[in-house]
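Example record

One chain of 272 residues, shown exactly as stored in the release files.
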Amino acid sequence: MRILFLIYIGVWTTSCGTNGPVKEYSETDATFNQLVWYDEFDQETLDTTKWSAVIGDGCPELCGFGNNELQYYTDAPENVKISDGNLVIQAKRDTLGSASYTSAKLISRGKGDWKYGRFEFRARIPNGKGTWPALWMMPSMERNIKWPDDGEIDIMEHVGYDPGVVHGAIHTKSYNGMLGTQKVDSLRVETASDEFHVYALEWESDRLVWYIDETRFFELRKEVLNEEDWVFDKPFHLIMNLAVGGNWGGRYGVDASAFPQTLEVDYVRVYQ
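Predicted structure tokens for this chain:
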């Protein structure tokens, strides 16, 4: 698709809601019109040629996945399944190991890895306090990943205590959540938990652009980062997960009565 970025002044409103002052964007001739990988979730079971399930709570290497999260990830059908043409990831109150919740996390590493392109998820997200759904990307490397130095791209994140506010971000050595310096922006999507929306990233050699439906809400250019922090020049893979609690998702506690909660994904598509 050919995309023309225009300059707006003032406050902009979309079907997603409002997002305060509008930023300035430039034109691009970026074209990502070849569908190179997809999952429409129209089969009866998860396509394991495209996705691998993460199992566990991060222990012993990184208990709570470095964020003090409360869930144990499984591949059990009560946590991850295909239903009515959607992928359904369910977080529920349960006891497994030392965890008090179970959920699911899927990754495409080794089965879908790309450098540059347009990445789309059509999803409906949960809304209970303590939920922390994410659609994101991490580098695909032969060695162990060094976070945050090797980079992270968050296409969609949402925390249940702040319903309807959807975030896009990157994390690198200098710009990361541990330091509170991550590059991030957000858009209010009033119907995020009631309706499906398309969360997309366009990744080029010199910039990243985030969309929700047709609304472009965040752009990050290579030139505004320190040279060592533009680490987005190698293949990354896709991740879908629903965490519970954690440093961000559980900042104001977890409403146990709100569970079970689901993250539903209608499709995932990759264009180059």
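Notes: Residues 32-271 form a domain with the Jelly Rolls fold (CATH 2.60.120.200).
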